[in-house]
Structures are given as structure tokens and as C-alpha cells.
């Protein structure tokens, strides 16, 4: 269902389209306090947020299929063919099949979501995504009652992806969510940024965005979605099980073994940008009830 | 080995002090780039990585000088102090950027040095280089006599720690830091190999 989560303020509210690409003074409030009830975190969540510029969002990326440098994706991702594109939805669904991008887009309602984005490497951005709720897509396929998890897979195209020549990770890139995380209204499939089609380096034509988890959970250029009853494997967890957990919720109190997660640096602040405190669930405290009774240090 | 003689005679003619200036300049250019957007949208990390990588490259170059002379007869020994001091300069600036621009928070700096193995390793490498930089002058060489040579063997563990620091900090399986480590291990191993021909022919 579209429009279940509401941006407190969007560009559309404050700026005519066409102006906002260069506009740096956009102030966007975050948080669903208005519809989910005021909580103690509301003041924090409503802190003024300025989305990063289009240039920042599209030139500083982790997409190891195109290389491990931050500028490699912007340099090499052009080679990825994104049309035609189709996504296979299979596993524990009533209507499995291969769905073309056109088919999917025709049935989904695209809306804007301005989200914080927190990388596991302790940098962050604010991104005005365009997309639809993952739950809408899953409902289209008809999730069976035995399904408990959702597995995702990125395209693997050695001819178009120079980075996969190196076994930095076990290709193809795979990710996964628990079904309730996948069905949460905050979880979206992004198809655009700043009302433009999503650039290849950001995961065209279709990527996941789970704003309360570290960025690597938000898998790019998805070709397969599989509903399962067992917890699926995830790429970074397989590469470093003690460093990257299945959940990977943003959590300032659980450090990465090699660096602190207590603070982050917002990209775009220049050479003298300070660090700011990282927020629990990246500021999206409304997801806390998904993890009631779970030890989040153990299930990192 | 016809190529050795022209290299050696050319090397003898190169004045050294301009090389000090040349090696000292790039960080100022990087800083300017960082201020004007030339290092991308996250200039702090870019600056940190560039300085760290150059430090490793100077350390590798410094390690190569002795094997080059012993095994190929190429004599670049008069550049060794300059190369070593340049390496120290880049290590120190790399550390400075990490302290002042990257972490900034004093409490977290100490916590990181003690708690994060790759930072502990990097710091240890820096500390080992300190006495070497301080004694890189004719007066110290005279004063310390044979002990100077012993002291400066500290560069071997320091370089290994530097490479290990790089190996430990990358995510996933990456080739580049392993190439540095491989080159360093090879250059160190060459020191145990007897010279193939008489020196100073």
C-alpha cells in the first residue's frame, strides 16, 4: 500500500521541480512521528535534514561488482544493460514468475521517500529516493503463509561488471530480510533518485532500501526475489561472519570489530566535516518492535 | 649488465636537495584539491588513503635500494636517506589527517588505538619509525657508530606493520594490499640471499 509512511517535508513542498537539484538549503524533516504517535525519539528524528546533492549521491558509491574504489561505480557502471530487465519472483509464492520491469512499474505506485542512509563504513547521506513499498510487490506475488524470509540476488554479468573478475566477494551478491522486515512500510524498492531514473551506480533499475540497516543490506540491481522458510545466506555475512551479521541493524552501541559505529560522517561536509552521533536504527525507532525480546548485540 | 653503468652515472649527477622539496610538495596539492572538490565528495578519507599509500610506496622504494645494489649493481644508496625521510613524512601526515580530520574525538582516538588491531598495528609501525627519522643525520650516524646500523634495522618490522595495517583494513578479499605485502616480503627475503656477484666491481 503506497503512502503508508509520510515525509514530513518533501522537495515538492518547498521547491519547484528543476530547482532542487542544485538547491542545498532544502530542509526535510524525518520521522513518522505524526502517524505513529509521538515517541521520545521524535525530537531527534525531526532534526532538520538536508538531502545530499545528486552529485554526492551518484559519485560516492559502494558497488563492488564495478570495483572497490568509491568512484569505480560512477566510472564503470554505465556498461550495465538495464533495459530490458526482469525480476524472477519464486519460492513460497502463489504466483511465481519472471516479471518485466514495465510490468512491475505498471502495477506499483511510485512515491518519494527521503531517508537517511548509513553505510557500515561509518559514513552517511540523506537520499530522496523514488520507489514503492516492497510489500506491494510481495503481495502481487502472493506470499504463502509458510514463508518466513525473503532472499534477494543481484545481476551477475562478467561482461559488464569488471569488478567480478576479482573474488572480493562470492558473486553473485545476495541479501536477505526476515519477512516482517520486508513487509514493513519503511522498506522500499527504489527506482529513482531526485525524480530521475536511478543511475546504474546506485543500483538501476531496481534496488532495495532498508533505511534502518547498514547500506550493504540494501541490495542493488535485483534480478531474483525468493520467499523461503529458512534464513538465506547474505554476501557480507559469508565473507566475514564475525563482522557482518544477518540483521545488520544500525546500532551505535555495537561496534564493527575493526571500527566504532558510535559516530558517522555525513558525506558532503568537505575537509573539515565533523562526526555526528549515529542513531539507534539510524533514527527509525518505529522498527524497534520488530526486535522485541531479541539481543541485538548477539543478533548484530 | 650494460644498463647499470649509465644508471649509476646518471644517479651520481642528480642533486639531492631538490628531491626533498619535490617529495614534500604533493600533500599541499592534495590539500588544495581537498578544499576545492578535487578529491571527490568525501575528501577526508581520500586524503588519508592517498597519503597512506604514498607512505607505503616510499617504504617499498627504500627497501628496494639495498637489493638493487647487491643483486643488480644499481647504486642508488645516496638517495636512501631522502626516500626514508619522505616515507616518514607521509606516514606522519597520514596519521595527522586521521587524528585531526577523521576521528577528531580524543576519547575515541585512544579507544581506537588500543581496541582496533589494524590501528594498533599502524601506530606501532609509526612509533618504530620515529627514532629512525630522528637519527637520520650525519651527527647521529657518527655518534651512534655501529649501533646506528642496528637501530635502523627497525625499518623492517615497521614496513611489515605498515603493509599489515593495509591488509587488515580492507573489506572483503582485495588484491592491492596483498601485492604490497608480497613485494615487501620479497625485498626482505632478498637480504638473506647471497649477492650473485662481487660488489663495487
Automatic annotation (TrEMBL), chain A:
Pfam families, sorted: Oxidored_molyb (PF00174)
Domain of life (superkingdom): Bacteria
Co-factor note (free text): Binds 1 Mo-molybdopterin (Mo-MPT) cofactor per subunit.
**Family annotation (InterPro entries):** MsrP, OxRdtase_Mopterin-bd_dom, OxRdtase_Mopterin-bd_sf
GO terms assigned for molecular function? metal ion binding; molybdopterin cofactor binding; oxidoreductase activity, acting on a sulfur group of donors, quinone or similar compound as acceptor
What's the EC number here?
1.8.5.-
Where the record annotates domain Oxidoreductase molybdopterin-binding, the positions are: 82-236
In the record, biological process GO terms are: protein repair
Report keywords, A-Z. Answer: Metal-binding, Molybdenum, Oxidoreductase, Signal
Q: Does the keyword Lyase apply?
A: no
Q: What cofactor is needed? A: Mo-molybdopterin
**What binding partners and quaternary form does the record give?**
Heterodimer of a catalytic subunit (MsrP) and a heme-binding subunit (MsrQ).
The function of this protein is: Part of the MsrPQ system that repairs oxidized periplasmic proteins containing methionine sulfoxide residues (Met-O), using respiratory chain electrons. Thus protects these proteins from oxidative-stress damage caused by reactive species of oxygen and chlorine generated by the host defense mechanisms. MsrPQ is essential for the maintenance of envelope integrity under bleach stress, rescuing a wide series of structurally unrelated periplasmic proteins from methionine oxidation.
Q: What name is this protein filed under?
A: Protein-methionine-sulfoxide reductase catalytic subunit MsrP
Q: Which gene encodes it?
A: msrP
Automatic annotation (TrEMBL), chain B:
Top-level taxon of the source organism: Bacteria
Question: Which membrane topology describes this protein?
Answer: Multi-pass membrane protein
Q: Name one GO biological process term.
A: protein repair
Name the needed cofactors: FMN; heme b
Q: Which residues cross the membrane?
A: 16-34, 54-72, 84-106, 118-139, 151-169, 175-192
**Coiled coil: which residue ranges?**
none
Keyword flag Methyltransferase:
no
Q: Which GO terms describe its molecular function?
A: electron transfer activity; FMN binding; heme binding; metal ion binding; oxidoreductase activity, acting on diphenols and related substances as donors
Question: Keyword set for this entry?
Answer: Cell membrane, Electron transport, Flavoprotein, FMN, Heme, Iron, Membrane, Metal-binding, Transmembrane, Transmembrane helix, Transport
Q: Which residues form the Ferric oxidoreductase domain?
A: 54-162
Cite the cofactor comment: Binds 1 FMN per subunit. Binds 1 heme b (iron(II)-protoporphyrin IX) group per subunit.
Q: Which InterPro entries match?
A: Fe3_Rdtase_TM_dom, MsrQ-like
The record's GO CC annotations read: plasma membrane
Give compartment(s).
Answer: Cell membrane; Membrane
- The answer, when asked if Transport is one of the entry's keywords, is yes
The UniProt entry, under PANTHER family, shows:
PROTEIN-METHIONINE-SULFOXIDE REDUCTASE HEME-BINDING SUBUNIT MSRQ
Q: Which family does it belong to?
A: Belongs to the MsrQ family.
Task performed by this protein: Part of the MsrPQ system that repairs oxidized periplasmic proteins containing methionine sulfoxide residues (Met-O), using respiratory chain electrons. Thus protects these proteins from oxidative-stress damage caused by reactive species of oxygen and chlorine generated by the host defense mechanisms. MsrPQ is essential for the maintenance of envelope integrity under bleach stress, rescuing a wide series of structurally unrelated periplasmic proteins from methionine oxidation.
Known partners and oligomeric status: Heterodimer of a catalytic subunit (MsrP) and a heme-binding subunit (MsrQ).
Name recorded for this polypeptide: Protein-methionine-sulfoxide reductase heme-binding subunit MsrQ
Say which species the protein is native to. Answer: Puniceibacterium sediminis
